[in-house]
Write a structure and sequence with these properties.
The protein is mainly alpha-helical. It contains 14 helices and no strands. Helix 5 crosses helix 7.
């Protein structure tokens, strides 16, 4: 990989890792569902008027938008709001690799090797340990939401592959049109008009900076950069770099929020990283073979 592309990869994963504690700062003042709605509203508007619609079926845009915005990021934000440390959330979302393995077995007839079964068992043990170490019921419910969001991310990966989209940036911009209205309706159904009435007073410099980072850095820049890397290099060389995301997420949470994992938590974090590493190799092979079939 060229040095400039390696730097880009590090920047993208750093931004995605940093996005977790930055999101936590935004959640200090805004309802998590409403914050997610604002993120995707600004990710789509006014950009859809300047970015040509990607050449994919409308149903793929709608499905990806709802999964990416509602089933993934809304659940992550709600989980963080319920007490999941942002660093832990950035690690748990990487468990999408194991859900992707499952889709490979179900839909593409793939078979898991010993390393992948071992990785899955280690991941289950790590997740169970993190849940048992969580301080309360709300935090445990939040952990469940983040794990569900990891499953949603894996479904999003399947949609991108099956749709054969090439214009990933345009795909994200146009798909971002779909989450805001359902998220605003959910906010209204769950909390009434209070989050909307309080919003003007909550849009201070901190929350505006958090929203801007989520939209322009974590969504626009990072997806553009990741797509560029996927175009220039094989998936097998790019995908393992995603393991840097929880590293940046954990350490940026320590710096920004002062949240330091305890000794037991460090052990569980290491266990999950090992599990994800074991599973990632097969995950890449699944999609390489699938891509070869499509081409």
């Amino acid at each position: 990989m060229q040095k400039k592309h390696l730097v880009l990869a590090i920047l993208v994963t750093a931004v995605w890792g940093l996005n977790f504690p930055v999101t936590k700062l935004g959640l200090a003042g805004i309802d998590p569902l409403l914050l997610t709605a604002l993120r995707f509203t600004l990710a789509s508007l006014p950009w859809v008027f300047f970015v040509e619609r990607p050449r994919v079926a409308f149903r793929w845009l709608a499905a990806y938008g709802l999964i990416f915005g509602v089933a993934m990021w809304a659940l992550i934000n709600q989980g963080i709001a319920w007490g999941v440390p942002p660093g832990t959330a950035s690690l748990l979302i990487q468990c999408s690799a194991f859900f992707t393995l499952g889709w490979g077995v179900i839909f593409f007839g793939e078979h898991l090797g010993r390393a992948q079964w071992l990785g899955a068992l280690l991941a289950f043990a790590g997740l169970l340990g993190i849940v048992l170490c969580s301080p309360g019921d709300a935090s445990r419910a939040g952990l469940v939401l983040v794990v569900i969001s990891a499953m949603a991310w894996s479904v999003g990966n399947v949609i991108i592959k099956v749709s054969q989209v090439r214009e990933i940036f345009a795909f994200v911009v146009w798909a971002s049109l779909f989450p805001p209205i359902p998220l605003m309706l959910l906010t209204w159904l769950l909390h009434g008009s209070a989050p909307f009435s309080a919003l003007p007073s909550q849009l201070n410099a901190l929350t505006l900076s958090s929203i801007a980072f989520q939209v322009y850095a974590a969504t626009h820049f990072s997806y553009w950069g990741w797509n560029l890397l996927l175009r220039e290099y094989p998936i097998s060389r790019v995908a393992p770099l995603s393991l840097l995301i929880p590293v940046f997420g954990i350490f940026s949470s320590m710096v920004i929020l002062g949240q330091y994992p305890g000794p037991a938590q460090w052990g569980l974090i290491l266990l999950l990283l090992v599990a994800i590493t074991l599973g990632s190799g097969h995950w890449q092979a699944v999609w390489l073979r699938r891509r070869a079939r499509i081409i």
